[in-house]
Design a protein that fits this description.
152 residues; homodimer; Arc Repressor Mutant, subunit A; DNA-binding; two-stranded antiparallel sheet; 2 strands
DNA sequence: ATATATCGTTGAGAAAGTCAACGATTGAAT
DNA sequence: ATTCAATCGTTGACTTTCTCAACGATATAT
């Protein structure tokens, strides 16, 4: 008999009706996942956020800092320091926007893409741990529902 | 033709593969929900966290501060100030644990239960807004998946 | 008895979030 | 053409939240 692994041990208080509160469930699962992610990404001197930015810088979508801020639900000033750090490490570059010279497009360097490729594997591993209690179908279903809630 | 409301408008960057990253999806939906929740709860001078504590204090489960900290993924010292504030407002009381006199059990006062009843309605309304793009079945499915991921 | 661990609490320092202002640049109105 | 308002990234100040180590009181194990 194999017991399913879960991220956190089931607590007595989960019986309360707040155990069905979406906000709390999101916060808890996100908190648990962040610990795993940051641990996994620490090997590459990245955190969840710098990894997210690096990922988007690798995506080919040529995001501006404003788009990064909106997409990551962060203040533009927080993007500045995150990009500063990645740029200082040579993983990312700022380029002036083509149509709008106020905007700065963030793209990954060759080195950045190399680091990202390895970090991504680590992040995927930590996601598997986080969702170990879910089957593949359930994981896909969860992602689909989250996406739908956010973007319809 | 009724267009489904979503919490955030669908962004260009959602096309990137990080748009399927569970950590990011959780963070975004939680962030969007927090804004709604705190706005709704502000009417009662509560935030997500103080509301969570008040809810558990109303639950009859007689949680200790340590249990609150574990369940809410907060540091014990953060519970202290949150309970301090609720206690100062007369919504909550500390009682010495029965079996363990080190522990403090947090229970709601009559006034606390009154406030909670009204705040709860506001919170439920804000949850409906947050998940407006999901049907009732999908909402239930989402909650079930989150619970399963956390506690198996 | 003694030692070790756990509870809530305090306080300090680090990190993250929030907000207003600025120069540069854009787009719209005249 | 020129002006005007708006937007972009950036800086700096301020608040809130996080993290951690220490402490007295209490509990548990030896």
């Amino acid at each position: 008999m194999v017991t399913q692994k879960t991220v956190v041990e089931a607590p007595r208080l989960a019986a309360a009706d707040i155990g069905n509160d979406v906000g709390l469930l999101l916060a808890k699962l996100h908190a648990a996942g962040s610990v795993l992610n940051n641990k996994a990404l620490g090997e590459f001197d990245l955190k969840e956020r710098s990894f997210s930015i690096l990922t988007l810088a690798c995506s080919g979508l040529e995001p501006t800092q404003r788009e990064l801020a909106d997409f990551l639900s962060l203040d533009p000033s927080q993007i500045v320091s995150l990009v500063d750090e990645l740029e200082g490490r040579g993983l990312v570059e700022r380029a002036t926007g083509k149509r709008d010279r106020r905007a700065k497009i963030v793209t990954a360097t060759k080195e950045g893409r190399k680091v990202h490729a390895r970090a991504r594997e680590a992040a995927e591993g930590s996601e598997r741990v986080q969702l170990a209690a879910l089957s593949e179908e359930e994981t896909a279903e969860l992602k689909a529902l989250l996406r739908k809630a956010l973007w319809g």
